[in-house]
Amino acid sequence: MTTKAQLVTNRQIEFGTFHQPIENVNLIDAKTNLKYSTPRWWRNLRLKEFQAVQGGNERFFYNIALFNAKLSAFAQVRVFDILQEKHYVYEQQLMPTQLDIPNDVLNSVNSFSNKKIDIRIENKLRENRITVKFKVLKNKEMPTIEGQVHGSFANSEHLVASVPFGENHGMYAHKNIVPMHGFLRINDEHHEFKKKQSFFILDDHKGYYPYRLKWDWITAAFISEKGIIGLNLTKNQSIDNEKYNENALWINGKIHRLPGVIFTRHQDIWDIKDKHGKVNLKFQALYPKDVKINLGPLGASDCEGPFGRVSGTVILDNESITFENIFAFAERMYIRC
Prior knowledge:
Layout: E1 4-6, E2 8-9, E3 12-13, E4 16-18, E5 22-24, H1 40-46, E6 47-56, E7 60-68, E8 73-81, E9 86-94, E10 108-113, E11 117-124, E12 129-136, E13 145-152, E14 159-166, E15 169-186, E16 189-193, E17 199-208, E18 212-224, E19 227-235, E20 248-251, E21 254-257, E22 262-266, E23 269-273, E24 279-287, E25 290-294, E26 300-304, E27 307-315, E28 320-336
Parallel strand pairs: 1-5
Antiparallel strand pairs: 2-3, 4-14, 6-7, 6-17, 7-8, 8-9, 10-11, 11-12, 12-13, 13-15, 14-15, 15-16, 15-17, 18-19, 18-28, 19-20, 20-21, 22-23, 23-24, 24-27, 25-26, 26-28, 27-28
C-alpha cells in the first residue's frame, strides 16, 4: 500500500485530493492564523475530530461514531432494522478529554468504554482492514446490542480530501466503501453479515471549522451485479466546492469523482443536484434524529441526522447509475462552538 507521509509540512496544509492513506494527519502542526502564532493548546481546542463507520445489508443499517468537538463530545451506537422498521439509538455525552482520536487509520485504535457503552475501532489499513467492536447494555429504552464487523479494503480505492475553508485552515476526510463481514446481536437474536451481501463505510474526519460549522451530507450503498455501489456527497464550507470536495461514487472498489452538489429541502424531501446534470437524487427523510442544544456562549447545535430512502441517477462518463429506493443516511449539520 502506498501512503502519504503527512498533511502539514513547514506548518502549511497541503490541499487537494489523494488516493492513498496518510501516515500522520498532523493538522495540529498547521499555522492556522498567518498574522500571529497561536499556541498548540488553542489549535487543539479549535480542531474538531471524529471517526464514524456506517454499514449494513438489506436488513440493517448502523452508524458507530466517536465525535470530539473539544467543547463537547459524544459516543453513538445507532442501528436501524429496515425489515421491522425498528430504530435503536444510544448516544452518550462525554467530556472531550475522554476521547483521544488518533492521527491515522493505518495502525491505530480509537475507543471509548464505560459501564453502558463500549466502542473499539481497530484501524489496520496496513493490513487492509478495519475492525469495529461495539456493545450497548440493555436499558429502559433499548435492548442489549452487540456487534463486531470487519471492513475489507483490499483492491479498493481510497478518497482522501483536504478541503480549504480559508487561508491555511480547512478539513481532512478519508472515505471508502468496501465489503464487510461480521455479526450483530440484538438481545439473543444473532444476525450474520456476509461479505458478498454487506458493505462498510469509512468516515474519518479532522478539521479547523469556522465558528459556525455547517454541512450537508448523504451516504448510501447497495449490492448489484457490478458489486458494491457506494455513494458519498457533501456540501460544506469549502472555498471552491467544485474543485475541493469529497464527492464520489464507488463501483466495486473503483472511485468515480463527482462534482460539487447543492442540497435543497422541502420539508422531508431533500433534492441533491449539481450544476452539470450528473447528480439528480431525491432523499426522503423517514426516520428522524434531531439534536437541538443551546449552551449560550459555550455553543449550540441544530442538527438533523435522518435515515431514509434515496432515488434518482448519477451519470458517469460512460454509464448511468440508478438508485431505486435505496436506504440511506443523511445529515444537516449546524454547530456553533
